[in-house]
Every structure is written in structure tokens, then in C-alpha cells.
Amino acid sequence: MAEVTTTAANTPTAESTPLLDATDLQIELITAHGVVRAVDGVSFTVRRGETVTLIGESGSGKSTTAMGVLRLLPEGLAVMSGSVRIAGRDVVADPGAARAVRGRTVSLIPQDPMTALSPVHTIGRQLGDALRLRHPGMSRTQARDKGVELLAQVRIPQPRTRWKAYPHQFSGGMLQRILIATALAAEPELLVADEPTSALDATVQASVLDLLMELQERTGIGMLMITHDLGVARLVSDRIHVMKDGRFVESGSAEDIVERPAEPYTRELLAAVPRLGAWDEDGDERTEPVAQGAAP
Amino acid sequence: MTDSPMACDLPLLSVEGLVVEYATSHGPFRAVDDVTFRIPRGGSLAVVGESGCGKSTLARALVRLLKPASGRIVLDGTDIAALPERRLRPLRRRVQMVFQDPYGSLDPHLTAQQIVAEPLRVGGVGDRTVRARRAAELIERVGLPSSALDRRPPEFSGGQRQRIGIARALASRPDLLVCDEATSALDVSVQAQVLDLLRELQADTGIAYLVIAHNLGVVREISSDVVVMRAGRVVETGPTATVLASPTEPYTRALRRAALDPTAIRGVKPRSVLALASAPASEGTPT
């Protein structure tokens, strides 16, 4: 074992079994206007330490794919076929498997932090519930200690005092951090993040993305990221799948997709992003950086 | 240089020391604090900033949906900041607004043609036939097919609705169009088309724009000058190209850094890109 190099250590047995393995996933939604095939045969994997991103415009099926993977689509109105293996269990074939992995192996970071938490309960109560769901034996005090630790981890200032605060007492960026802490309460191996920063300001988005990337560097957590933002996708992803009308039109490394797009649709998407042009990026060295010490 | 100073130096809009306050239970909250800028005829100014910076309040004050606490809003020589509604009414047609939400800003019961004809009716333009014809012209002008005329908002996509909103705003032949995040709810490809349309309209008609935006890329596409706002105040101002290429204020630099341009990013998961991009000083406060 002593001969094992760091590179090999980073690719343990997980290399052979991905955290998430979707094969020919199809999702049909039953709507008032008939059956819509929202996801039309997509296959992808997410391994330990990897971020895989589904990018597309509204109606492309990217969020439906994410919700399907977690089986959070309304039963009876969404018909799934193909297979999605999470920790080796196929959640398409077995709805029980989805319930078993959700909140344990895999957690969701939802899109809109302003509405995802209950406004009438303290964030401590909600985070504590998530913790005690994962660890049924945990006492309230233990849950609070662990929860405060998680809040500190997502860089909420004064987590012990903030434990009793209500969602409306936080900004959007802080709420999204609290939701990330709640997702982490499950000690998941995989995070599904559905447009986690789309409702946030750019500078707040930067701090939340930094948090997610740091978390991955530290713990090797796998991420399935859903976004419409090519800048976000390019920054956080190992691999990107470009989605349109329920299918992947192009898949590749983040670098290849942005620098060497092969498909016309990918090129159109890239061309539509307003260019910012060059700037004196290193000029900050001349002045005091504004945003260093993010945490007090 | 030889033009008469009266006609040429007078900006279309001159905002001086504008202050807008909201009443709260803790006393007045100053949402816009001593803001000054000018827009020349046919010019295009962007106001950029993050949520809560006061940019939308500023827009609403400029079209006098809000009454400022102090300061001047001089439109073509007339200060409209404190004008009573009766005297404001004839000037209202000259400054029109395109709203952010393409779903909530159109009456779902009216057809596209009725929506665009409404400002004409209010303005007492012609008879019903004249107004219908003019509305049809405007709808064509914003790039919608004639089949759109009799359809209602729920039948249109977000981008098409925003085009209807623009046609409605143009109906009264305004000198200034205030676009409050007019493309931020749209997909990037649709956003690009709407920005193209706005540029085209400006080239054709010489209309001036005040563009409220949080997206620096949009600002670069549509404006020649920019005002950066934070916490109600102007932190930096200048020609858009200059401010984006070499921002001087730390906050503007953080904004510039946080705007993730996919083609400018190098390497695999380069987290360092984010190092100076967050602005924590404003983040802790609830909005």
C-alpha cells in the first residue's frame, strides 16, 4: 500500500462505480396538452470529486433530468424509463431505492433560496430536523452543536447566535449557504444543485460557487450541476452536457465545450453570451483587494 | 462647435442630486442618495448594480411612478421631480418604460394589438382604425409576425412578450426609454435578439435609453456610458468601455471579476477566478 501514489489514491475503487450512473434516461410528463417527452434518452455519470453540468435554455429538460434523478417529480404525472444508479441502486426501477438514498447518499440544493425554507420556523429548527433525519438517535443539543458547525463551515458569521434566526432575517446569499448546510447535513457523497446561484447577485454567486468548489476540494463530493449560465458551467465543471429538447446535443470537457464547440447549437449559445472584453485584471495588486477576508 | 448652445448643450435628461426615500417603521429609508447624471439626446446610459442598490427605485422615480424627496429631474428643460400629476401628464408620453417581467407587465385579457394601441388611445391619437393600423406597424417593427396581432399574452413566449412591451412603450413616440432589467428574465439567445432590436431601434429613431441592469455584458452591449450604484449612491461613472476595461473602484472591480465570461476562463475548475469576486461587506445585510 505504501507504493500507492497520490494520483492512484485519488482514483480508488470509485473509478469503477460512479456515484451516479444514468443510462438512456427518458422522462415523459403527462400534461393537460398530452404527453411531453421532456427527457429523451440521456446517459451520463458523475464520479467522486467530479462536477458534471447539464446546461441548456428554458424547456431543455435539464431541471426535469435533475428532479428525475432524485425522483422528486410527481409520481403518476412523470413516467421514467432507462436506469439511474445511485450508489449502485436503480432509482428508476425501485422508488424505494430513491427514498433510501435521498437525504443520505445524495442531497439537493434547490434553485430559489428565498422560498425553499419555511418562513415560520427558525433555521436552527430546520437544519436540526435535517440532521436528526439522518441520525435518528441524535439529541436536540447534539443536533444544534453539529448544525452550528455546519453553518460555520458554509461561512455564516456568528452561527451560534444565528441558530435562532428566521429565514427573513438573512440575505439571499446567506439563505443559499444555509440550504447548502442543510444539504450537507445528510453527509452526502453527491450533491444535485439545480441553478444554485441563478437567483443571486453576481458577487454573491461568486462566494457561493467558491464555497461549493472549496467543499469539493476538501471532501471529494460529487456534483451534478444544472445551470443556464455558460460562465458558471465553464468555471465549476469537469464535464458539460449541452441539452436541448430533452437530448444532449454535445458532451465534453468544460474546456472543449467552450473553446472548441463542435455543434452549431453550442456555438450559438456561446455567441449569445455578451462579451466583456479584456480588462486590467491584475490591477488589483496595486490597490487593496476589496473582498479578501470573506469570513471574519 | 458652431451649433447653438441652446439646442445642443441641453441634455435630454439631467438628474441632479436626486434623493428618493421610502417610509418605514424605523423612519425614512434612503434608497437613492444624491444621484447625478445626464443623458444626451439619442444617448444610452446604463445604471448597473446589485439587488437593493436603488437602481429600480431610480428608474421608477425617473418616470415619476415615485416622487423624489429632493433633487431635480430635468427633462428637456423642465424639472419634473416635483410636478403635480396634472402638469406631468402631458410630459409622460415622452419617457416610457419597459419592465423586467414579461409575464406580469401585460394585461392577459387584451390582444397584442389592443395592448400596443392603448397608449395611443390614452394620448388621444386618431380614431380606432388609425390606432389599430399604427399598433400593427409597431408590432411589425419589433419583429413580430402579423399573426401576433390578435393573440393574447399567454400565447407568447417571454421574448415575444418583451417585444410587445417594447412596441407599447414606443407607441407614444417617447424621447427616452427606461428599460428596467428588460432582458434579465430571458434566455441568453433571446436576450441577444432583444438587445439587437433595441440597438436597431436606436439607430433608426434616435431614441435615448436608460438601461437598468445587473449584467455587465448587457451593459456593454447597449450603453455608451455607465453609472455604477451601490447602497443608493453612485460609486463610479464614465464611458462604458473605460469603466469595464479599467474599473477604478474596488466595488466595480469585484463586480467585473464576478461577471463570469466563459471564453475568458482558462484551466480546469480554476477556483482562483473567484478570489476577489465577492463583495462580503454588503452581503450580510438582509434585502
From TrEMBL, chain A:
Superkingdom as given in the UniProt entry: Bacteria
Originating organism: Streptomyces sporangiiformans
Subcellular location: Cell membrane
Name of the protein in question: ABC transporter ATP-binding protein
GO molecular function (one): ATP hydrolysis activity
Ranges annotated as spanning the membrane: none
Protein family (similarity comment): Belongs to the ABC transporter superfamily.
Region (Disordered) residue spans: 277-296
Gene Ontology biological process terms, A to Z: peptide transport
Principal location class: membrane
Domain ABC transporter: from-to ranges: 20-270
Coiled coil: none
Pfam family name, one: ABC_tran
CC terms in the record's Gene Ontology section: plasma membrane
Keywords recorded for this protein, A-Z: ATP-binding, Cell membrane, Membrane, Nucleotide-binding, Transport
Topology term for the membrane: Peripheral membrane protein
